[in-house]
Design brief:
alpha+beta, 7-stranded antiparallel β-sheet, 179 residues, globular
Length: 179
């Protein structure tokens, strides 16, 4: 290494940058993984999937729209940035139940509710995942209410798979660091 002519000392070396900040679970979520084409029911196969990330630490909003019917579609918003609190979740579900026409209780995850809103134009659901801090908000414009529960189940199962995958990746990184 070169030395400074004036002092005879080695030039200062900039400290090595710390490892890049780990992405949160929500930031790692992808609609292609959360709502994979192979897991979608026959009625959803012709829908185009898009992803919006208006709040990276929350999770994505996954939209599926039929190209031939642009006013018919589904949006699944994953909100994963607030730790689960049973009292707060119960309050959200109670308020949502009041807002829905013909509400139906869901026994998926930590629980949820689905029902009609806007005079039947939308069929919606709110539910809480039991493997993470994620709340799912599903809105289906002109959707088939008979398919809502299977869609909710698919959306929840994909969160679990993402949690397991993220835990496996973190364990692998940890194992590599320890060695």
């Amino acid at each position: 290494p070169a030395t400074s002519a004036a002092t005879g000392a080695s030039p200062s070396v900039a400290p090595v940058a710390s490892a890049a900040k780990q992405k949160s679970f929500a930031e790692k979520m992808s609609c292609e993984v959360l709502l994979p084409e192979k897991a979608r029911q026959a009625g959803l196969l012709n829908y185009k999937l898009t992803q919006q990330n208006s709040c990276a630490e929350c999770g994505p909003t996954c939209s599926m729209v039929r190209p031939d019917k642009p006013f018919e579609g589904l949006a699944v918003a994953y909100v994963c940035n607030v730790p689960y609190d049973k009292a707060a979740a119960d309050k959200v579900l109670a308020e949502t139940k009041k807002a829905f026409a013909k509400p139906v209780t869901l026994t998926l995850g930590r629980g949820g509710v689905m029902g009609e809103k806007d005079n039947g134009t939308f069929y919606s659901a709110v539910l809480f995942d039991d493997d993470s801090d994620c709340r799912l908000n599903i809105d289906w414009m002109r959707g088939d209410k008979k398919v809502m529960e299977p869609v909710a189940k698919m959306a929840l199962q994909s969160v679990k798979q993402s949690v397991v995958a993220a835990a496996g990746m973190e364990a692998a990184v940890y194992t590599r660091r320890v060695r």
